[in-house]
Amino acid sequence: MAVDNTRYDVPFRAPALPYPPQVYDQESFEEFNKVLRIYFNQLDNALRNAMAVQEPYELQVSKGQVAGASTVYKFGFNPDVNGTEETVWGTGGNYPYLTSASTVYISSSSTADSNGGTGANTVTVEGVDGSYNAKSVTVNMNGQTQVQVGDASSWLRVNRIFVVTSGSGGTAAGDIYVANSGVSSGVPTGVTYAHVIQGDNQSQIAAYTVPAGYSLYLDDVTFTSAISLANKHVTASFVTRDFGSNTFRTRIIQTMQSALLVLPLTYPFKIEEKTDVVPSVFRYYQRRSGGVFSRHPHKELGGWCGVEILYTYL
């Protein structure tokens, strides 16, 4: 049986042309040209759009050609995973989530990381505010002295920090921290929410919170494990916590050895606004004689990428 491949959703069609007058009339002629002009403009736009479709959607998003859509790429590194599950982020341990909008501060372990110094001069902090709206603030560094980031009580999540400008050194001279109040030689004495390891100039936090008004469509998840011992394996999981819930739900779980594991999602996984995303939480075991399991320190990396789309354009 023949398949009808006709497209019935084309938003225009050939116009009904006006009947010509028996005697030349300039007004009628201009009206005729107007009808044709509109139709040919529609054809031009349709052809341009058809050519654009041939370019991969992902590339169009990256080039800013898709209204309301933007790429999100998150990655993290945990240098020392020990006997319990840990989030993949530079500070280690589990990521500490704020329970209400709070004031956060930025500082460095080096006095050279200051505005006008040889190290990091300005740093951008990204996250969401108390209403889960996307938030970005660029701060002038002041070495080991804490500087308030934006307004007081305005941060609910810190998703990322990165060095924007540096002095003659061309890089951060020390480790940079975003934390609550209290430091010793620039290093927080309280709770750290983001951390740039010296030389990276970018935080490595695989965790993320989807801003209000957006849906995140996850394209792939990556796990990397570096273990030197034999007879070992890692359990890597990707978990989410919906808005209003206090429970993290496992969405992806994989067991792997010392290797790179890439999980492409043929059908992108939709994650709603205000959802906490914690990919790449690892547990590591080595089987010993008698069936006893023990845990050993190791290094872990994890990341994911996707497209974030504003609700207005869904």
| Number of beta strands | 18
Q: Name the average pLDDT.
A: 86
Coarse morphology? elongated
CATH topology of the largest domain: Jelly Rolls
CATH architecture of the largest domain: Sandwich
Percent in helix: 10-25%
Instruction: Tell me the major beta sheet.
Output: 5 strands, antiparallel
What is the top-level CATH class of the largest domain?
Mainly Beta
What is the number of helical segments per DSSP (H or I, 4+ residues)? 2
Overall tally of structural domains:
3
Estimated share of beta-strand residues? 35-45%
Task: Describe the protein in words.
- The protein is mainly beta and 314 residues long.
- The protein has three domains: 14-54; 63-79 and 207-313, Sandwich (Jelly Rolls); 96-196, no CATH class.
- The protein has two helices and 18 strands.
- The chain has helices at 26-53, 57-62; strands at 69-81, 105-108, 120-128, 134-140, 147-148, 157-166, 176-179, 183-184, 187-188, 192-196, 208-209, 214-226, 232-241, 249-256, 260-271, 276-287, 293-294, 298-310.
- A hairpin with a 5-residue loop joins β3 (120-128) and β4 (134-140).
- Residues 287-296 have low confidence and may be disordered.
Briefly summarize what is shown.
The chain has 314 residues and is mainly beta. The chain contains 2 helices and 18 strands.
Topology:
Elements: H1 26-53, H2 57-62, E1 69-81, E2 105-108, E3 120-128, E4 134-140, E5 147-148, E6 157-166, E7 176-179, E8 183-184, E9 187-188, E10 192-196, E11 208-209, E12 214-226, E13 232-241, E14 249-256, E15 260-271, E16 276-287, E17 293-294, E18 298-310
